[in-house]
Specification:
CATH architecture of the largest domain: 4-Layer Sandwich
Strand order of the largest sheet: 5-6-7-8-9-10-11
CATH class of the largest domain: Alpha Beta
Number of helices: 7
CATH topology of the largest domain: Metallo-beta-lactamase, Chain A
Largest sheet: 7 strands, mixed
Number of domains: 2
CATH superfamily of the largest domain: Ribonuclease Z/Hydroxyacylglutathione hydrolase-like
Distance between the termini: 40 Å
Structural class: alpha+beta
Strand content: 15-25%
Shape: globular
Length: 291
């Protein structure tokens, strides 16, 4: 729980607040934009919740915060926020919440599928929180854990031990060192099963890989996200740890694929029809070439 003594001065007066341990990961602003906003290098409460739904969203942000930087001075039923995760995004795709500080608050996702279709898939690792783990178990557990890159592995080993799942990751991001069971190599796309395609996209890191599900959902890690400020798809030039030139090539490769959702670890989710996504992606490539 956040420390009232560290309450940031730019929080509006009232119940909910953010303290100075905030790392500006943006999770709270995505989950409860009506309550939280950006203030320099932090998030702050810019509007106190006024309705039951706004309070629920604020409590979800509190639960999801990777550094426990969100607090409340009044008593609330924590289960309102806890039980909201995993949160359905669309169809059988869920956001796990409970982000991890070691991943700088990166988002992780759960695909819920029958065992006959390959079972559930966890994309990147959330915090290993008992409440979340128990809920995932009731939803069918985890058969496969897809790790997009080395930055967002968080508590992968604990999830693998609990569910006995097979982890999938690229060799060039240290998969062997992490004990990953299925190690990807090279730059060619690989069908993991009839619905899942792993696409290596070096750039952000040497072994970064995205996951395409049903030619509809692209789990993009730190490779691609939506920018509400620029109102388009973007890559993160300031957070390219390996090679910007290679990331441009990787982004060009993605224009050969169709998808309707971009679901990143960092940055905003976006949904549009396939033609618009392809157009936005091509614009992103052209923008990248000017950086």
């Amino acid at each position: 729980m956040a420390n009232p003594a560290l309450r940031l001065p730019d929080n509006v007066p009232g119940d909910f607040f953010v303290d100075s341990t905030c790392i500006d990961c943006d999770a709270c602003r995505q989950i409860a934009p009506e309550t939280f906003s950006e203030d320099g290098e932090y998030s702050v409460v810019s509007h106190q919740p006024q309705s039951a739904e706004e309070t629920k969203r604020a409590l979800m942000a509190l639960v999801a915060c990777p550094t426990a930087s969100i607090g409340a001075t009044e008593h609330h039923d924590a289960h309102i926020g806890i039980d909201a995760f995993p949160m359905q995004i669309a169809g059988n795709v869920y956001f796990c919440g409970f982000t991890a500080e070691s991943s700088f608050g990166a988002w992780s996702y759960l695909i819920v599928r029958p065992a006959s279709e390959g079972g559930n898939v966890l994309i990147d690792s959330p915090r290993f929180a008992t409440q979340l783990v128990n809920r995932i178990e009731t939803m069918g557990g985890v058969r496969t854990m897809f790790l997009t890159h080395r930055d967002d592995v968080a508590d992968h080993a604990r999830f693998a031990e609990r569910f006995g799942c097979e982890r999938v990751m690229h060799a060039d991001d240290g998969a062997a060192r992490l004990g990953v069971e299925r190690i990807l190599h090279g730059v060619d796309a690989l069908e993991l099963d009839r619905d899942l395609v792993a696409i290596p996209v070096p750039g952000h890191t040497r072994g970064h890989t995205v996951l395409l599900y049903l030619r509809k959902y692209l789990f993009s890690g730190d490779h691609l996200a939506w920018s509400p400020n620029r109102n388009t798809l973007i890559a993160f030039r300031s957070a390219c740890w390996y090679s910007w030139a290679e990331q441009i090539k990787s982004m060009e490769k993605l224009t050969d694929y169709e998808f309707e959702w971009v679901l990143p670890g960092h940055g905003r989710i976006h949904h549009a029809d396939r033609d618009e996504m392809k157009t936005r992606l091509r614009h992103c490539v052209e923008w990248m070439k000017t950086r």
